[in-house]
Amino acid sequence: MTTNPELSALFPLANSIPADARVTPLHQRETLVSGEMRRYEGDSKTVLSAVHFRQADGSLSPVELGSYPLGGTQEARDALDAAVSAYDSGRGRWPTMTVAGRIACVEHFARLMVERRDEVIRLIMWEIGKTKSDAQKEFDRTVQYIAATVDALKELDNGSSRFQVVDGTIAQIRRAPLGVVLCMGPYNYPLNETFTTLIPALIMGNTVVLKPPKFGALLFYPLLFAFQKAFPPGVINTVYGRGEQVVPYLMGSGDINVLALIGSSRVADTLKKAHPKSNRLRAVLGLDAKNPAIVLPDANLDVTVRECVAGALSFNGQRCTALKIIFVHRSIADTFVARLSKAVNSLRCGMPWESGVQVTPLPDQQKPAYLGECVSEAVRLGACVVNDGGGDSAATMFRPAVVFPVDERMRLYHEEQFGPVVPVVPFDDVREPLEYVIRSPYGQQVSLFGNDAQQIGTLTDQLVNQVCRVNLNCQCQRGPDVFPFAGRKDSAEGTLSVSDALRAFSIRSMVASKHSADDKALLNAIVDGRRSNFVSTGFLL
């Protein structure tokens, strides 16, 4: 693959980094297990930045950000044993703690987390190449998510702080934890998306084994000290290592009660099969997606182009909710593609800390080669790269490519490219993209662009039975966090939103008695004397 000199020149010299963007190499040698920061003397994994340094001769070399422990099955066992012990079959301090007590721990953690904001943001920029503004948004949105989760739990618990009397039975129904959760987040939103499962799992009384993502592992290190201070020993434990080695081992132990994974459906299938007691395993999964946009003949092209560029190329297209294929009616295809290409060409490529930059280096060192292969195959089969310089690359920088016309012979038609390539497919009959959605193994979201109320209404009625969110004249997206985030087919299992996540990591449990004078007196004695954290009528403010 030929290196583009113009893109090479975008990478910085080592001595040109602004002071507020510099990062000190971080060589992590500790993991959090059973409330202790345990020293690890074994193998380590070198962390390469998405950013490269430009040398005096013009060559590019990857920046070594540091390293983290590369533990094996013994380290995984230690972390798992700590979580199992802390849960203690539901008898541990954490699962039997009051809801108010768990909330206090989570809020304490959030305060400590905010103290490490600048450090975490710099690591997000350098590890995965996210722009400074987006890294700030990810951190701040995560803090807001924690606060919203606390509010949602208060509302949920307050609604359960009463007794019901039905057919001579007195009952109180509340939510109880499930056990030990294995939590694994993605590299594209390593902090936010990991915490959308981690925080609800914790606050509902589960204990957790956390495995950070392959790209974005170092940014968790500053937060380990906050976890240590805020939570009782063993409530949260970390494991680092080769995923293909330690994760199947954890699942094969049978001690994991909930698999919380945001990743690929292939990995999820493998891990679920590794569990020896599948009926005891709950899975909360955010998986693959190939979200299409369908552009109808009467679409407002100003709106459509703006939303498609943002939807396809925000954070270089590295989002599960990204628009990964665009179907456009043939009658407007040439006009749409020309305007789309012009808009893509206006995107500024550069380093994460530079103001106004929209396209940044990719964290996966191998991804530019893969994307280049997909584009080359499409061109060989009759498509064109429409925008100037589209598909050019240098090290980890890849200039976004608009590829048209794409058809079903090409990998870009089927594969989730997860990068800055925008495949555009012309269609004559709207049944063509509809059939694509139906045949697709994925079913997360779709974007519809058009203004015919009858046609949009009819398509919506069909598409809501194929995907979990239909976006009208706007890009696919996850938020706001109070809305359900789910998927059909191979795109998800379970539903995540602030309130749905609390339910995903818990189960309804009930205490019941006969409606007799003696039993009423017993329940009153338990409540009045605060003899139980479950049987109570306290109200959380």
- Per CATH, the class of the largest domain reads Alpha Beta
Cα distance spanning the termini: 60 Å
CATH architecture of the largest domain: 3-Layer(aba) Sandwich
Question: Which structural category do the helix and sheet elements fall into?
Answer: alpha/beta
Question: Brief description of this entry?
Answer:
It contains 17 helices and 25 strands. With 541 residues, it is an alpha/beta fold.
List keywords for this structure.
541 residues; alpha/beta; Aldehyde Dehydrogenase, Chain A, domain 1; Aldehyde Dehydrogenase, Chain A, domain 2; 2 domains; seven-stranded mixed β-sheet; six-stranded mixed β-sheet; globular
Describe this structure in words.
This protein is an alpha/beta fold and 541 residues long. The chain folds into two domains: 71-161 and 174-286, 3-Layer(aba) Sandwich (Aldehyde Dehydrogenase, Chain A, domain 1); 291-484, Aldehyde Dehydrogenase, Chain A, domain 2, CATH 3.40.309. Helix content is 38%, strand content 22%. It contains 17 helices and 25 strands. The strands form seven sheets. A seven-stranded mixed β-sheet has the order 15-18-19-14-13-21-22, with helices on both faces. α13 (411-414) links the parallel β18 and β19. α3 (99-115) runs antiparallel to α5 (132-160), α3 (99-115) packs antiparallel against α7 (221-230) and α8 (243-252) packs across α9. The longest helix has 29 residues, at 132-160. It is globular, with a radius of gyration of 25 Å. The relative contact order is 0.14.
